[in-house]
Protein 1
Amino acid sequence: MFSKRFALTSLALLSLATVLISLIGLMPGEKFSLPFTEDKPVNSLTGIEGNDGPLLVVKIDDTTFAHPQVGLKSADVIYIEQVEGGLTRLAAVFSSQIPSLIGPVRSARISDIELLAQYGKVAFAYSGAQRLLLPVIASANLYGVGANKFGPQFYFNDPARVAPYAMMLKAPELLTESKSRGITPATSENIGWKFGEPSDNLIAIKSAHVAWPASSYDAIWSDKEDRWLLNHNGKLNLDSSGYVLGPKTFVIQMVSITDSIYKDKVGGVTPFFATVGTGSCYLLRNGGYSPCVWNRPSEDSGTTFTDPSGQELTFEPGQIWFALTAKEPVFALDEMQDATNTRSK
């Protein structure tokens, strides 16, 4: 009886071992991995769990009248840009998530063409553009999916807001209609920055103040939320749901800002900010900042970030904001954290 039971047990173990070996299928020199396990997809722009998807970029009003904004919590990357009169406007990049509504949507600017070229042929959503700029947008390497082409079925004014700070975009419906018209935006992919541990030389700060002639942002570090919480023009930057906007990584990218040949409808000169070339920057993450150098050799290439010695700097996985400015930021140092770091050395 014992020998029969032993034989049956041995046979069962042998069968199990055979199945495991066939499932694992190890070849000489291969690493062991459990069967049926897969790495979950990671979005290339944020470094967090999520899919790469068609790239939709939306121009968002950033005046005080436009706040609270809608849909920005779902953006992968957000750029703060200077426009006429020293005000700011946002270019929000979406790929991993497409919210049902985004806005308030505003008009395109000449600098957007150069900035967005590094992403490939994106779908570019905007309310309109200066007359002389429209043919330039039409000939650029992007899909113009603005209100002038798609109309009120997808772009509509929120009756609770005052125009021109009221236009909302039905983003999923716009992408569906775009696809039916043969528009196939590029899929998000890595365009230069990478993700990893912070620099050993991270300088601890409480906050950073970034200013333009008629607008400002403050990035305030929150240990509790493990991200930067943003103030806009001195007030907490809440979106329409009450969420405080703010990223894991906030990059202050110093750029050259000059007058372009374009003007807005009241005669204000449109500034042009150059995002091809090289320049200084400040990479904010994990409660501190690292002085850095950005480099983008051409419109078609992505943007990389190194420390002043040329060593690559990495981003914290999560949403990323870029503040494109010509004015140096002002940092409030975290003296307590610096003192702790000094004692530990």
Note: The first strand starts at residue 56 and ends at 61.
Protein 2
Amino acid sequence: MTFRATHVTTYTYSDPVSICHNEVHLHPRGTARQSVQRSELKVDPTPNYVHGHKDYFGNSVSYFAIHGAHNRLVVTSESIVDVHPYEPPSAESTPAWEVVRDEVSIHEAPETLDAFEYVFESPYVKTGVAFAEFALTSFTEGRSFLEATLDLCHRIYNEFKYDQTATSISTPAEEVLLARHGVCQDFAHVMIACMRSLGLPARYVSGYLRSGPKMVGAEASHAWVSAYCSGFGWLDFDPTNDVMPSGSHLTVAWGRDYGDVSPVKGVAIGGGEQTIRVSVGVVPTLE
């Protein structure tokens, strides 16, 4: 199915901003499961400088600078993306999770070497005993990788409450694990921390959900988890909605955690107090 994704971020300042420099991850990735027909970035006021490049993880990144007084900044991304439905493997066909852990630890093959870098801690994802203990309820001895990972995803969905007022992006995953409250970014960080604490590679995926009432988090940037499984590559899991993404998720970028793929970030001189408003819409183009 073909979708039109529109992402609008509006900054309003109490005092004029004289200079701002920003970096955005707003262009969807081309992958085996989606192809990008078009992706356009619009910035108001018009930037003095715009530059695009690929980051370390292969994501499309745009950088822009505005050298002139302004009280409002609007960043709009519009993309047309073909999303191809995906049929996940059967749970019993995947190896035991310990096999995946051990093969990644040795990392003799190119694919396990690439996955190995996602085993380690990152700025927003620390590992530790608490995460390992939570994960081991799902990752019992000899259990297949997919069955165990689906169970962990299901438990986060059931045991954690989606609450937009409970956390900020700076809230540590350890606090989210204790409080059992948060949003999609928090749930993704917790799940990644659990898997990495067992030596399993997991990465953070930023993207969008098809608009509508069926999915939680559909009217803003969404986040989920991609976990590596030997013989099957990277498999996606959305603990906020307890699903393996297929057909309704649009991937924008991936990295170690939110910090690698934040949709919009930057620095500004001046501005006083600011308010931020974000809206996301993802609809089939036929609608």
Note: The mean pLDDT is 94.
Protein 3
Amino acid sequence: MKTSAFCFAGDLADEGVDAVLDNIQGRAGLGGVTMAAAYHASRDLFPHARERHLRYQPGGQIFFQPEAAVWRGLALQPRPSALVRDGDPLAELIASAGPRGLDVQAWTVFLHVDWTEDGDPRFAEQTCFGDPCLTELCPANPDVRAYALALARDIARRGVSSVLAESLHHHGLEHGAHHERYFVELGSAARLLLGLCFCSHCLDGARRRGADPDELRRRACGEVERALAGSEAQSTAELSHEQAAALLGGQLGALLEARCETVTALAGELAAATREHGARFELLDASGAIKGYADGRPAGDPAPAIAWRQGVDVAACARAGAGIGAIAYAADPARVALDLAAYRALAPAAPLVAALRPGPPDCDSAANLAAKLRSASDADVDRVDIYHYGLAPLSALDRVREALELACI
């Protein structure tokens, strides 16, 4: 089983590429680096940074020099980071990692872009009321699909082992922007509906599957408006796929089906494109983060059971040629084993990669992490990515090495 550490281009710029690689390879005992080649907006605390412990990350930027020919004529263009003005962080990492025998994966956030100040609503997901969600591009939009394909191609041609695709799917209501506020109890149905895209491209997909787009939108608006009025209690019980499909007079199922087919087709296109350049394509499913990111205590069914909410059909994406990425954020090793086994059952022949956190809120000892590593091995996981080099204290690297030794990985 291969191993790697997530990192940012900012980590490399702050500490120096060689210092970071020394720590990842020598101190943690890991075999690769998974660098963010494109990322969303964030404000993060970096415990062992040399210069700034608190850093801001502008939204939707890339961390390599784009190839002009790949992007020529596209409606959506890449936005290079300030770190690219004087160099190419991804190229520098690949050049330094190669002689050390380290693999480089390109962790790529595709459609969560946070272009709120100058985002174009034509490309954004839209609520049933027509409100544009400027932080998120819609995967059903042809111009967005062309952007995603160009991004994957431009990265894959650089010599990375794989493109780990985060946010190549639809997005829910929560975690769409910073300082979100919802001072009304929406209930599970209204929360789901407000997180679905009703743009013309998504509605066309629903129409092809027998739904009436106008009726679909009208019913969705009515359902959400009743919740916003706050005049009646809203059920907060988690909806199953079958229950959700039965909403809006039974028509919502057509939209949910269209969303999954949209993401599956896009994942297949990107997998074929990266394969042309010798790189593997891995679709990172957000379900494990939705369930366990905040407290490391996911509950209920295994993580992939809710993937449909983001328009992800894990089994179909694997059949389309994508490797599958599982976010295994959980304190309990048994929960990690449950989730990874579920992903493996859905994608028995596909490469499976898993993200683990070596510190709070998921991990308090090397023994805990070792148990999770053994579960990954039992699920025939191809690679474990440790989250995250810059966000964890350096002592976490010692825990990783000890866990790898305990697990005999």
Note: Residues 252-276 form the longest helix (25 residues).
